[in-house]
Design brief:
mainly alpha; MetI-like; transmembrane helix; Sugar ABC transporter permease; 18 helices
């Protein structure tokens, strides 16, 4: 009888105090596992932040960061008063905003289409095809784009013309955004595809029984299942509007398309590494990062207002 009573006794729920006591008792074990990640984060993420002091100094390599003379906000005033400031800023914003508007819905649409493929073998083959471009390096992709759009390339032969598309500033943004969508849309759809697998099958069957068409099934059954992921991804992408990849923009850049292709990241590279003006280029990079943080906080606040208080 006593044995049966012991078997039916409820298990005591572990409280936060019990968990804290356990962690305190075994802190060496947690420290052992966390130390490598903490060290790498501190060395490669936090220690380099000391170099931001260069943005406020007339940096001299021999004198070092701590020995160089202080100039305050001189580089920021110089950049903001530069005649090219608005051009570089607008180029960066246009590439990012247009890329977000055109590129953000594509992975969602692709995931919804993949979810409609019922045959597992066919679905896996299609997924392989759409995921494959993500594993092509940026430089190889830019080389492919240059070959495709060269005056003697396949596109011009198909159209029967000999236009050098890479020298046209008006075509640069379309080339940049379209190639980016082709490369990343398939891989970006993985999260949405995984979330769609959790969509209620019973609700979908009920919608079909009630006569819902394909668009109604997507709107009322499938989109609510991935709503939270869509919100998080939108906040992250909108918060990184100023963080355009340097490699691709620089690899697609030519002397003729500079009016449209010169963005803040390529400008920092040209001023800092090619011209050796380290303080000024650091100030431009810091300005870019600060704007990014402000945009991230602002977008998160707006999404919370529009999404019943749910944000990042």
């Amino acid at each position: 009888m006593k044995r049966m009573q012991n078997q039916t006794m409820p298990v005591k729920k572990q409280t936060w105090r019990d968990k804290a006591t356990y962690v305190k008792k075994n802190w060496q074990l947690y420290l052992f596992f966390l130390m490598p990640g903490l060290l790498l984060t501190i060395i490669f993420k936090y220690l380099p932040m000391g170099g931001l002091l260069i943005a406020f100094e007339d940096y001299n390599v021999i004198k070092g960061v701590l020995g160089s003379p202080w100039v305050g906000l001189e580089y920021f005033r110089r950049f903001l008063s530069s005649p090219d400031f608005m051009n570089y800023l607008l180029n960066t914003l246009k590439l990012s905003i247009y890329g977000l508007l055109w590129g953000f819905p594509v992975p969602i649409i692709l995931a919804l289409l993949l979810n409609r493929i019922r045959r597992t073998g066919v679905k896996k083959k299609v997924q392989l095809l759409v995921y494959m471009p993500n594993f092509i390096s940026v430089i190889v992709l830019c080389g492919m784009v240059r070959m495709l759009l060269s005056p003697v390339g396949p596109l011009n032969k198909l159209l029967g013309i000999s236009t050098n598309w890479m020298t046209m500033p008006s075509a640069f943004r379309t080339i940049y955004i379209a190639s980016g969508i082709w490369q990343t849309a398939g891989w970006a759809s993985i999260m949405y595809t995984a979330a769609l697998s959790n969509a209620s099958k019973e609700l979908e069957e009920a919608a079909i029984m009630d006569g819902a068409n394909l668009l109604q099934q997507i709107w009322y059954v499938e989109l609510p299942a991935i709503k939270n992921i869509i919100v998080i991804q939108f906040i992250l992408q909108a918060g990184n509007i100023m963080s355009i990849g340097f490699e691709k923009a620089y690899a697609l850049q030519t002397d003729m398309n500079l009016p449209a292709s010169e963005i803040l990241s390529t400008y920092v590279y040209r001023i800092g590494l090619l011209n050796g003006d380290y303080g000024y280029s650091t100030a431009v990079g810091l300005f870019n990062s600060v704007v990014n943080v402000i945009l991230l906080v602002f977008v998160n606040w707006v999404v919370k207002k529009l999404n019943d208080g749910e944000g990042l």
